[in-house]
Amino acid sequence: MLPAVAQGAIGITCRDGDQAMLDFLAPLNHPETKTCVDCERSFLARLDGSCRTPIAGQACIEDGVLHFRGLVAKPDGSVVFETGKSGKPADALAIGTDAGTELKEKMGDNFFAV
User: Fold this and answer.
1) Which residues constitute the domain of residue 72?
2) Which residues form a coiled coil (predicted)?
3) Number of domains forming the structure of the chain
Protein backbone atom coordinates (compact mmCIF):
# COMPACT_ATOMS: atom_id res chain seq x y z
CA MET A 1 0.00 0.00 0.00
CA LEU A 2 1.32 3.41 -0.92
CA PRO A 3 0.66 6.36 1.38
CA ALA A 4 -0.71 9.73 0.41
CA VAL A 5 1.94 12.14 -0.88
CA ALA A 6 4.28 13.52 1.82
CA GLN A 7 2.78 11.42 4.62
CA GLY A 8 5.05 11.39 7.63
CA ALA A 9 7.00 14.48 6.61
CA ILE A 10 6.80 17.52 8.83
CA GLY A 11 6.72 20.88 7.09
CA ILE A 12 7.27 24.31 8.56
CA THR A 13 6.39 27.45 6.67
CA CYS A 14 7.51 31.00 7.20
CA ARG A 15 7.13 34.36 5.55
CA ASP A 16 8.79 34.86 2.19
CA GLY A 17 12.02 36.78 2.60
CA ASP A 18 12.25 36.32 6.38
CA GLN A 19 15.93 35.42 6.31
CA ALA A 20 16.30 35.39 10.09
CA MET A 21 13.59 32.75 10.40
CA LEU A 22 14.93 30.78 7.41
CA ASP A 23 18.37 30.73 9.05
CA PHE A 24 16.79 29.59 12.33
CA LEU A 25 14.86 26.77 10.60
CA ALA A 26 17.67 25.60 8.29
CA PRO A 27 19.20 23.11 10.76
CA LEU A 28 15.81 21.37 11.01
CA ASN A 29 15.79 20.52 7.29
CA HIS A 30 16.63 16.94 6.31
CA PRO A 31 17.81 17.26 2.69
CA GLU A 32 17.00 13.66 1.71
CA THR A 33 13.44 13.94 3.03
CA LYS A 34 12.97 17.29 1.27
CA THR A 35 14.15 15.76 -2.01
CA CYS A 36 11.68 12.89 -1.66
CA VAL A 37 8.79 15.18 -0.72
CA ASP A 38 9.61 17.50 -3.63
CA CYS A 39 9.38 14.50 -5.99
CA GLU A 40 6.09 13.35 -4.50
CA ARG A 41 4.57 16.84 -4.59
CA SER A 42 5.57 17.37 -8.23
CA PHE A 43 3.74 14.11 -9.03
CA LEU A 44 0.64 15.34 -7.20
CA ALA A 45 0.83 18.76 -8.86
CA ARG A 46 1.06 17.22 -12.34
CA LEU A 47 -2.14 15.29 -11.61
CA ASP A 48 -3.79 18.42 -10.17
CA GLY A 49 -4.44 16.37 -7.05
CA SER A 50 -5.62 17.38 -3.63
CA CYS A 51 -6.30 15.70 -0.32
CA ARG A 52 -9.67 14.64 -1.77
CA THR A 53 -8.34 12.69 -4.77
CA PRO A 54 -7.25 9.03 -4.52
CA ILE A 55 -3.60 9.61 -5.40
CA ALA A 56 -0.68 7.98 -3.61
CA GLY A 57 3.04 8.40 -4.01
CA GLN A 58 6.25 7.61 -2.20
CA ALA A 59 9.85 8.41 -2.98
CA CYS A 60 12.95 7.09 -1.26
CA ILE A 61 16.66 7.33 -1.84
CA GLU A 62 18.70 4.14 -1.75
CA ASP A 63 22.37 3.87 -2.68
CA GLY A 64 22.27 7.37 -4.17
CA VAL A 65 19.29 6.64 -6.46
CA LEU A 66 15.83 8.18 -6.01
CA HIS A 67 13.03 5.62 -6.47
CA PHE A 68 9.45 6.76 -6.86
CA ARG A 69 6.22 4.77 -6.93
CA GLY A 70 2.85 6.35 -7.56
CA LEU A 71 -0.74 5.42 -8.24
CA VAL A 72 -4.15 6.84 -8.96
CA ALA A 73 -7.45 5.08 -8.34
CA LYS A 74 -11.05 5.69 -9.26
CA PRO A 75 -12.96 6.92 -6.21
CA ASP A 76 -14.75 3.55 -5.98
CA GLY A 77 -11.47 1.62 -6.39
CA SER A 78 -12.62 -0.08 -9.60
CA VAL A 79 -9.62 1.08 -11.66
CA VAL A 80 -6.05 1.64 -10.50
CA PHE A 81 -3.05 2.84 -12.50
CA GLU A 82 0.49 2.58 -11.10
CA THR A 83 3.91 3.79 -12.14
CA GLY A 84 7.49 3.67 -10.97
CA LYS A 85 10.44 5.87 -11.88
CA SER A 86 14.05 6.09 -10.73
CA GLY A 87 16.88 8.53 -11.26
CA LYS A 88 19.26 10.98 -9.71
CA PRO A 89 18.03 12.77 -6.59
CA ALA A 90 18.92 16.06 -8.32
CA ASP A 91 16.19 15.21 -10.86
CA ALA A 92 13.49 14.71 -8.20
CA LEU A 93 11.07 17.28 -9.63
CA ALA A 94 11.37 15.88 -13.16
CA ILE A 95 10.94 12.30 -11.92
CA GLY A 96 7.71 13.19 -10.11
CA THR A 97 6.41 15.22 -13.02
CA ASP A 98 7.22 12.46 -15.51
CA ALA A 99 5.40 9.91 -13.35
CA GLY A 100 2.38 12.21 -13.14
CA THR A 101 2.40 12.76 -16.90
CA GLU A 102 2.48 9.00 -17.51
CA LEU A 103 -0.54 8.38 -15.30
CA LYS A 104 -2.40 11.42 -16.62
CA GLU A 105 -2.14 9.95 -20.13
CA LYS A 106 -3.34 6.52 -18.92
CA MET A 107 -6.31 7.79 -16.94
CA GLY A 108 -7.70 10.28 -19.47
CA ASP A 109 -10.22 13.00 -18.73
CA ASN A 110 -12.76 12.85 -15.89
CA PHE A 111 -11.03 9.87 -14.25
CA PHE A 112 -11.93 11.03 -10.75
CA ALA A 113 -15.60 11.71 -11.56
CA VAL A 114 -17.99 9.45 -9.67
Assistant:
1) 19-107
2) none
3) 1
